[in-house]
Amino acid sequence: MGIDGGLFDRIVHWETVLMNKKGTLEFLADLISDDFLEINYKGQQIYKPDVIPWLEMADLHEWVGSQFKGQLLSPDLFLLTYLSQLQLTPDSKKTVRSSLWRNEGNKWRLVFHQETRL
To answer: Apex CA 100: angle with CA 106 and CA 103, to 5°?
Structure first.
């Protein structure tokens, strides 16, 4: 299935906004589906109610994403994969991230995320 360049750009933008907590809590929480599941680098399962307090915490670090790749799996499901690393620490560990974004009534929301340390 082909990729709509505008959709790819929007999802990369939203992913970066979430990763760096840039925006109001209401805006960030609305980007995340109510049935969201994350599997973090420790293998722990994290759900939307667990993510909201994290979104509220101040973070002095900025994450940088690279090598973004997208695939439209169906008209309402988009897979995004990329590498991430803390911006100011070039020796920090990189992670491979995968996110599934689902179109929920003409609004794309993050439904699944997994990160694996390299």
So the answer is: 10
Please tell us whether the domain made up of 5-117 is placed in CATH 3.10.450.50: yes
CA-to-CA distance for 76 and 97, rounded, in angstroms?
20
Contact (CB, 8 A) for 38 and 114: yes
Whether 59 shows a pLDDT value over 80: the answer reads no
Residue 56's φ and ψ, nearest 5 degrees, are: -80, -20
Q: Please report, to the nearest 10 degrees, the dihedral formed by the alpha carbons of residues 46, 47, 48, 50 taken in order.
A: -50
Residue 3 to residues 27, 73, 78, 86, 99, Cα–Cα distance (Å) = 25, 9, 9, 28, 16
Enter the pTM of the model.
Answer: 0.90
Domain boundaries, the chain: 5-117
Residue with tokens 């307090």: 53
